[in-house]
Amino acid sequence: MSTRQPILRAEDLHVWFDLPGDSELHAVQGVSFELRPGERMGLVGESGCGKTTTILALMGLLPASASVAGRVHLEGEDILAKGEESVSPHRWKDIAMVFQGAMNAFNPVKTIGSQIAEPMELHGTATGRAARAQVRELLELVGISGERAERYPHEFSGGMRQRAAIALALACEPHVLLADEPTTALDVMVQAQILELLVRLTRDLGLAMILVTHDLPVVAQVCDRAAVMYAGEIVEMGQMTTIYHDPRHPYTRMLFAATPDLLGDEDVLSIPGAPPRLDHEIVGCPFTPRCDSAFAPCPTAHPRRLEVAPGHEALCHLNDHLVAERPA
Amino acid sequence: MQRSDYILKRTLFALLTVFVAITLNFVLFRALPGDAVTGLKCHNCTIQFKNALRKDLGLDKSKWQQYVIYLKDLAHGDMGTTFISHRPVRGELWDPIKKTVAMIGLGTVFSIVFGIFTGVISAWRRGTVLDKVSVWTGLAFYSVPTQWLGLMIVYFVADRIGLPHGGIQSPDYGILGNPGTLDFLKDRIEHMILPALTLGLVLYGDYTLIVRSAMLETLGEDYVLTARAKGMSNWAIVWKHGFRNAMLPVVTLIALSLGFILGGAITIEYVFDYPGIGLAIVDAIDKRDYAFLQGAFLALTLSVILFNFIADLLYFKLDPRVTT
After folding, report:
1. How many helices (H) and strands (E) does chain B have?
2. Residue A196 DSSP class
C-alpha cells in the first residue's frame, strides 16, 4: 500500500434528515475513512444503511432537509467548511460521480454529447469545438463510437448509458470518482464489462474511486479495500483480502456467506431480519438482533472501534479481548 | 418508425378529423326535428311560400344530395348565406372571429407569460412565502367564475384606471373627422384590455398551477441531481434542465385549452358587450339564424382541431422521444 497522503479524508461525518413531526433520522453516524491516490475502495451494505447518503454528503449534494456535520478533506482542503461556496468549485473538477446510468441520470431532451460537454464549459476546461472533440474522445475511451454524441439518451441501451455516465464523470479529469451502484439494474455480462472498464480507467488515469454497492462480490472483484456499512456506521474496514479471509465483524462474515459460491458446495445463507430504523437512538450494537454471535454486552453497550490489525478496524464486542491484551 | 413520418401522420389525422367534424356538423343539424324553414319567425308565411323556400334552399332534395352539395360548396369556401343579413356566412363569421382572436390572443399571451414565470419561480422557491402567495393567487383566479370576475372588473376597476366598460369603440369615435390608423388601433386596444385581462387572469390561475406542479416533478428527477453535481447553479438547472422537460405537459394543456377558448369566451364578451364570435353566436341562436350557426360551429370545431395539431407539432419539437 502506498504511503502517499490521502487524497480524500472523511472525518467523523454525520448526516441527519429532518422528518415531518419534529423528529430526525440519523442516517450517517460518524463515518471516517481515508482514500489514497489510485486506490479503489468499496462501500458495501444493505439498502438504507447510509452508503449513498455518505457519498452525496462528500460532494455536498444532499437535499436541504439534511444537516451535515464533520469534515471532508479533499487534497488537504476542508471542502464542506463553507458549504456550497467551498464545495462547488471542486464538484466534477476534482471529485465526480458516476450515477446509475440505467436510471435517469441523463436529461431525455438533450443529446448525450451536449450533456457531457456541459461540465467542461461550466468549469472552463474546454469550450465549443474543443469540448466536442473531447466528448468524442471520452466516448471512445469508454467504448462508445464518437458519432453517437449527437444521439439522445433513449437511443442508448442500459449498458451504453452507463458507459456514457462514466464518460460524463471523466469530463473534467477529476482525481476522485464516486460510483453509486454503477452496475445495478444491468445484466451480468454488461455488469462485468462496466466493472472492467472502471478498473481499467482508474488504473490508467490514476483515479481514486469509491464504489458504492450492496454487492460484495463486485467489491471483491474491483476494490483494494472495503468498508462495510451497517445502520449508518462503518462496522469493518480493511484490505479486501484481509476482510475476506479474516472478517472481524459477524455482519461481514454473514454478507460473504450470503453470496452464492460458483462451485455450489456451500449453502447460501441469508441474514434474517432487517436493518434497524434510524429515527431514534439505538442502545447497544445495532446489529445485535440479527447477529449469530451476540453475547452479554451487545444489547446494552455500543462497541468500540478497534484496530484489530494494522489497517484493519472493526466495530464489534468480539474484538474487545484485544484491548485487554494490549491496553490502550 | 421514422421521426419524419410523425408530422405526416399527424397531418393526415388532423385532416381526417376535419372531415369527420364537417360531416357531424351536417348530420347533427339535420338530425334536429324540423328544418331550416320550420324555425323561421314568420307568422304571415303561407305553406306555399314555405315550400317554395324549401325548394329554393334545396331542402326538397334527399339528405345524400344535400350532403354532397354541402361538401362541394364548402370546398369552394361557400358556407351559405345568413338568414338575417343575407350576406355570405364566411364574411359574417370572419369579422367577429377576428375581434375575438385579437382579444383572447392578448389575454392568452398575458396568462402564458405570467403563468409560466410565477409557476417556475414558485416551484424553484418551494415552501417560501413567495410560493404560498403565488399558489393562493393562482387558486383564487382559477376558482372564480369568469363572468363574476368580469363584473367585478367592470364595477371596481374600469373607471379607476380610465378604461371603457364595454363595446369595441368609443361612442364619439369618428364623429369629428376621420381619425388615423393609430387612433383607430389605440381605441380598439383600449376596449380590448379589460375583457382580455379577465380572460388572462382566469387562464393565469390555471397555467401557473400546472407549470408549478410540472416543474416540481421535473426538479425531482435524477438528471437534475446530475446537473447539480456537475457544478451548475440553481438557476441554470431550472432553466437548462428543468424548463424544457416541464414544458412538455404544459404545452399540451395550454394548446388544448386554447382550442376551446374561441367559443368559451362567450360570458366575457357578454359582460363586456364585446362583439366577438361568442356574442354573434348568442345573437344567431336568438334569431334562429340557421346558416350562421352551422358555419360558426364548424369554425369552433376547426379551431379545436387546429390547436390540437399545433400541440402535436410542439410536442414533437420539444421531445426527441416522440415518434408515434
Report:
1. 13, 0
2. H
Question: How big, in percent rounded to 5, are the helix, strand and coil portions of chain B?
Answer: 75, 0, 25
A66 part of contact set with chain B, CB < 8 Å? no
**All structural domains of chain A with their residue ranges:** 8-94+174-325, 96-173
Q: H/E element holding A17? A: strand A8-19
Closest CB to A61 among B221, B228, B318 = B228
Q: Which of B198, B191, B203 is nearest to B167 (CA)?
A: B191
Residue A305, strand partner residues: A315
For B218, which residue in chain A has the nearest alpha carbon?
A107
- Residue range(s) defining the domain that contains residue B309: 90-318
Tens-digit pLDDT profile for residues A65-96: 899 999 999 988 899 888 888 888 899 999 99
**Homologous superfamily assigned to A8-94+174-325:** P-loop containing nucleotide triphosphate hydrolases (3.40.50.300)
Which residues have C-beta within 8 Å of that of residue B311, sequence separation ≥ 6?
Answer: B251, B252, B254, B255, B256
Q: CA of A106, closest CA in chain B: separation in Å?
A: 5
Q: Give the Cα separation of B292 and B297 in Å (integer).
A: 9
> Which of A99, A109, A152 has its CB closest to that of B222?
A99
Cβ distance of B231 and A105 shorter than 8 Å: no
Span B22-45, pLDDT tens digits: 999 889 888 877 777 776 667 777
CB contact set of A127 (below 8 Å; sequence gap of 6+): A120, A121
User: What contacts 24+ positions apart, CB below 8 Å, involve B148-153?
Assistant: B149/B198, B149/B201, B149/B202, B150/B195, B150/B198, B150/B267, B150/B268, B150/B271, B150/B272, B151/B271, B153/B194, B153/B197, B153/B198
Lookup: cell for B201: 387572469
The b-or-e profile of A237-256 (16+ CB within 10 A means b, else e) is bbbbebbeeebbbbbbbbbb
Kindly report the CATH number assigned to the domain that includes residue B284.
1.10.3720.10
Residue numbers of A between 123 and 152 with CB closer than 8 Å to B: 123, 152
Span B177-221, pLDDT tens digits: 676 778 888 888 889 999 999 999 999 999 999 999 999 999 988
Q: What is the pLDDT of residues B3-25, one digit of tens each?
A: 778 889 999 999 999 999 999 98
ipTM: 0.84
pLDDT in tens, A176-203: 999 998 888 788 888 899 999 999 999 9
> Closest Cα partner for B226 from B237, B216, B215, B235?
B237
**DSSP-assigned beta bridge partners for residue A208:** A176
Is A93 in the B-facing interface, judged by CB distances under 8 Å?
Answer: yes
In a domain, B38, yes or no: no
**Which backbone phi and psi does B208 adopt, to 5 degrees?**
-65, -35
DSSP state of B173: T
What pLDDT, in 10s, does the model give residues B255-272? Answer: 888 877 777 688 899 999
CA atoms of A35 and A224, how far apart (whole Å): 11
Outline where DSSP puts E strands in chain B: none
Q: Does the CB of B127 have a partner CB in chain A at under 8 Å?
A: no
Q: How many domains does chain B have?
A: 1
